[in-house]
Design a protein that fits this description.
Layout (H helix, E strand, L loop, with lengths): L15 E4 L4 E4 L2 E2 H7 L2 H10 L5 H14 L4 H9 L6 H15 L8 H26 L13 H10 L5 H13 L7 H11 L4 H12 L7 H12 L5 H10 L17 H15 L5 H17 L5 H12 L6 H22 L22
Antiparallel strand pairs: 1-2, 2-3
Helix pairs in contact: 1-8, 3-6, 4-6, 5-6, 5-10, 6-7, 6-16, 7-8, 8-13, 8-15, 9-10, 9-16, 10-16, 11-15, 13-15
Length: 367
């Protein structure tokens, strides 16, 4: 028995490669450092789904196709508006995806072409859903998508009402790319398990959202920004960390199940967080994060993980803290659906066994 299936190889995949000992991450054979610097979200989505980068003409056609799919049916917006105020943001997103699937007459058609159409539909629409949720939470009306803007620019436009500057656009585009897939994490595995039953793509994505909602998975990004807010100032870092370690409290944003060195995604997000911080009127959050990172490494030799720096990037770009995990889902849906497509190609029902630890041989007469 292996608790948590740690290190168990559960499937073959040609999508994402990770070497946690060396800090290597690649999509379809392309190193993440090159991908993050030289491609777009649209290009990475095409790569993960099709197994290759698009030609220039394919990229243009593909970008226009995603842009055309961004608008939401009025019923979806009505659903988001009517959600109770106490509902968890990821529960709202999960319900929205389920409703999008319910409205799709091709939902249960499971061939590759139909599933790829659904994947594009969700990748295009989830940014619109998350941006609408953000604005409604602030008492503002949702902004319709602008088909003339690329995916990252449009996402920020729908969020803030302004076409972003190039630094902000590039920061969001890179963040979307860096979170697009991460091999067989809990949410991706959940998607593949549901797909293995030959259920529909929407049901599999709903399962992925349910897994990502958990605080040990995607929900951790929310807590990273709260950590900086709790610390409050650079002067409080050492006393805060000392108290937390003495009380054996785990600080969010440190350590990773796979990486034993610095997460390669964190390298880019740290740089972007600094650039955004220096251009903002709240650079102290970045300063607190760096001081905390340095002291934690001094005390425990722990590296900060991707969520630690991404929380700063998303905060500076204007995402509400309570929707950070929803943002992750809005880009990870590309990776989830790539794995769904791959699972279908060589499917086998995923059905592990349990090691029984209860009693045996009980008799009703012995009661």
């Amino acid at each position: 028995m292996i608790p948590g299936l740690e290190g168990v190889i559960a499937c073959e995949s040609a999508i994402t490669f990770i070497d946690g000992q060396q800090g290597v991450l690649s999509y379809r054979g392309y190193d993440i450092h090159e991908i993050a610097e030289a491609t777009t979200f649209e290009g990475v989505a095409f790569l993960l789904w099709e197994g290759r980068l698009p030609t220039r003409s394919e990229a243009e056609t593909f970008g226009k196709e995603l842009a055309r799919l961004r608008p939401l049916d009025p019923q979806i917006l009505s659903l988001i508006r009517s959600s109770p105020e106490w509902a968890h943001p990821m529960a709202r997103l999960r319900t929205a995806v389920s409703f999008i699937g319910e409205m799709d007459p091709q939902a249960d058609v499971g061939d590759r072409a139909a599933d790829l159409t659904k994947a594009k539909n969700l990748a295009a629409k989830l940014s619109t859903v998350v941006a609408a949720m953000a604005r409604l939470s602030r008492g503002l009306e949702p902004i319709a998508p602008n088909a003339e803007l690329d995916h990252a620019s449009n996402y920020l436009y729908m969020l803030t009402g302004r076409v972003p500057d190039e630094a902000s656009r590039r920061a969001l585009d890179a963040t979307l790319i860096l979170y697009a897939d991460h091999e067989l994490n809990a949410s991706t595995f959940a998607c593949r398990v549901v797909t293995g039953t030959l259920s529909d793509l929407y049901s599999a994505v709903v399962a992925g959202i349910g897994a990502l909602k958990g605080p040990l998975h995607g929900g951790a990004i929310d807590d990273a920004m709260r950590l900086f807010q709790d610390i409050g100032s650079v002067d409080n870092v050492r006393s805060y960390v000392d108290a937390a370690l003495e009380q054996k409290r785990r600080l969010p944003g440190f350590g990773h199940r796979v990486y034993r060195v610095l997460d390669p995604r964190a390298i880019h997000l740290k740089k972007m967080a600094e650039q955004l911080a220096r251009a903002s009127d709240e650079p102290h959050w970045y300063d607190i994060a760096m001081a905390t990172q340095d002291y934690m490494y001094e005390r425990k030799r722990l590296n900060a993980n991707v969520d630690y720096y991404a929380s700063l990037v998303l905060y500076y770009l204007g995402f509400p803290l309570h929707l950070f995990t929803n943002f992750i889902a809005s880009t990870r849906v590309v990776g989830w659906t790539a794995h769904i497509l791959e699972q279908r190609e060589n499917n086998r029902l995923i059905r592990p066994r349990a090691q029984y630890t209860g009693p045996l041989g009980l008799k009703l007469a012995d009661r």
